[in-house]
Write a structure and sequence with these properties.
By secondary structure, this protein is mostly helical. It is built from three helices and no strands.
Length: about 100
């Protein structure tokens, strides 16, 4: 094995001694802390998302449509369904209808 070739972690090197942090060698280096700042990548990703949405995307209209769909979903409940819905709202599992959780 040449000096450029290294044994894989926890495998013996040319002297037959296991290498790597698990080998318990004195003087072995601890694992390095790797921190990566993804801020620039996130800005790049957001720019691509907005490009994909296009200039016609209207977030206020989307929220209005979402509110209308939510109202339709929970309209026309029978008495038992309404009781379960009211319990879920009281427990904080579902938001109250007409509570303005989407744009008006």
């Amino acid at each position: 094995m040449s000096p450029r070739d290294r044994a894989l972690p926890d495998e013996p090197d040319e002297s037959g001694v296991p290498s790597g942090p698990a080998a318990g060698r004195p003087g072995a280096h601890p694992p390095a802390d790797l921190t990566i700042d993804l801020t620039s990548h996130e800005m790049f990703r957001r720019a691509h998302v907005l490009d994909a949405l296009g200039p016609d995307w209207d977030p206020v209209a989307v929220l209005r449509d979402e509110e209308a769909a939510y109202e339709l979903l929970y309209s026309g409940l029978d008495a038992e369904q309404q009781r379960v819905y009211d319990e879920l709202v009281a427990a904080g599992v579902l938001p109250r209808r007409g509570g303005g959780h989407a744009a008006a």
